[in-house]
Amino acid sequence: MTCIAVDDEPLALDQMVDFITKMPCLDLKATFKKGIDAMIYIKENKTDLVFLDVHLEDISGIQILRTLKQKPFVILTTAYDQYALEGYELDVNDYLLKPISFERFVKAVEKIQDLGSLNRPPSEPIAVPALPPEYIFVKADYKMQKIILKDILFIEGYRDYMKFHLYQKKPVVSLLSFRKIESILPHQEFVRIHKSFLVSVDKIDTIGKNAVKIGEHTIPVGEAFKESFFKYLEEKELLK
Fold first, then answer.
1. N or C, fewer C-beta in 10 Å, the chain?
2. pLDDT tens-digit readout, 73-104
3. 8 Å CB contact between 96 and 105
């Protein structure tokens, strides 16, 4: 975890450096006695954690925090406890009151570690991957037909039409292209094995050299797709 220390008191800064170097999880990149220099560094360099003194000669630690759009993790250090509330209002992660004991310092660092994603500032939103769809609607017989993805056994192509073979349901025929349907279906669940066939992997019962079986259906594996199909199975660790 990269960090910097900011304090205009030489003895306090030396103590902070000593504490940081004792922690294997911390990588001290720089120290600053002036707040302006620290503020510029934070804005120009990726920093996971800042040990920031509230009282500095040129600009206060609170003022520095107010200028930052993307804040790293911040642990305030000060001899005055009246700034605790204001610090927490600025999303400060901990507050160390001087004189600081090593035990209290370790506790603060462990708190930061417990917060999770150490390489991402806490103010940065966490990207949540979109879940694959559970069903789609396709145009069939002059209406939009709902198809549940888990019901799909395989899809058969007829020029500009797709025939959806479904579990315990009648097939559905729709005006679609393979390019379109492949862009919709989750790639981890469906794979193209022939120019005319796209199959649901977990519905495959047996795999032969040139064909797969899904229930009573025997589906050919095209020469142009054989290598990519077996590579897909190996990458998914489905071949033992």
1. C
2. 999 998 876 655 555 566 788 888 888 999 99
3. yes
Q: Rounded to 5 degrees, what are φ and ψ at 103?
A: -60, -40
Q: Are 94 and 111 in contact (CB under 8 A)?
A: yes
Distance between CA 22 and CA 30 in Å, rounded? 16
At 64, which helix (H) or strand (E)? helix 61-67
**Long-range CB contacts (< 8 A, 24+ apart) of 129-132?**
132/186, 132/188, 132/189
- CB within 8 A of 233, min separation 6: which ones? 207, 239
Identify the helix (H) or strand (E) that includes residue 203. none
Q: Rounded to whole angstroms, what are the CA distances from 52 to 4, 16, 134, 142?
A: 8, 10, 49, 66
The reported pTM is 0.49
pLDDT of residue 105 exceeding 70, the answer is yes
pLDDT per residue over 22-69, tens digit each?
999 999 999 999 999 999 999 999 999 999 998 898 888 888 988 888
Could you give the domains of the chain?
Answer: 2-114 (3.40.50.2300), 135-235 (2.40.50.1020)
Pairing of strands 49-53, 73-78: parallel
Q: What residues are paired with 147 via a beta bridge?
A: 136
Which amino acid does the sequence have at 150? Answer: K
Tokens of 207: 């795999």
